Amino acid sequence: MSAHTPKRLLLSGLLVSTTLAGCQSLNRKQEGGAIGAAAGGAIGAAVGRANGSTAKGAILGAVVGGTLGAVIGHQMDQQAKKIEQQVSGATVERVGEGIQVTFASGLLFDTESSTIRDLAATNLRNLAKSLNEYPGSDLLIVGHTDARGEDSYNQALSERRANATADYLVSLGVTRTRLRTNGRGEAEPVADNSTEDGLQLNRRVEVAIYASDKMKADLGRGFTPER
């Protein structure tokens, strides 16, 4: 055995430990700070898909890590606090270097409808205000349904609801090019569809908020994020 073997084994152990720690951190809410550079876009997107969450996959796939990720994370901390204070009824979660905002479908739409309810206007207006205050982010809006009814109907309904939410935000001044939409139908449940409570939780719209490529490029050149 070479005299260098123990050192190589030690370095290998450290590398494995660091990699595992980085992967585990992707499954936790992040309160600012950086995710290691090894936990980049491909790993983040894979973790999101494995967790059955298109929204989380989009956020984790945009992770950059390092000092740049720390700056983005700090701004997302600030924005998340404001959204939580101003958008009643929504669940706000810090994920990676982004934010996930989840609306119960009944908060935005009547049963089997994709027309925004009048009562939802204040919530979306306050969300749009925050998005316009922090213009450096991009968004993915994902519609979900419960498992009742035909798969094809649920898929189409989830797409219409995601598009309706995006259109409404655009009408409130959010730039269209910042938005993407996706309908997942009944494919990504977060609760048991055999119970009424579970069905209600599965009917939802998720808004993934993460740094745009322009924001990352500007920060990389030392520019202050637009506010």
From TrEMBL:
It is found in: Cell outer membrane. Its main location: membrane. PROSITE patterns: OMPA_2 (PS51123), PROKAR_LIPOPROTEIN (PS51257). One of its GO terms (cellular component) is cell outer membrane. It comes from the Bacteria. InterPro entries: Bact_OuterMem_StrucFunc, Gly-zipper, OMP_bac, OmpA-like, OmpA-like_sf. Residues 96-213 form the OmpA-like domain. Keywords: Cell outer membrane, Membrane. This is OmpA-like domain-containing protein.
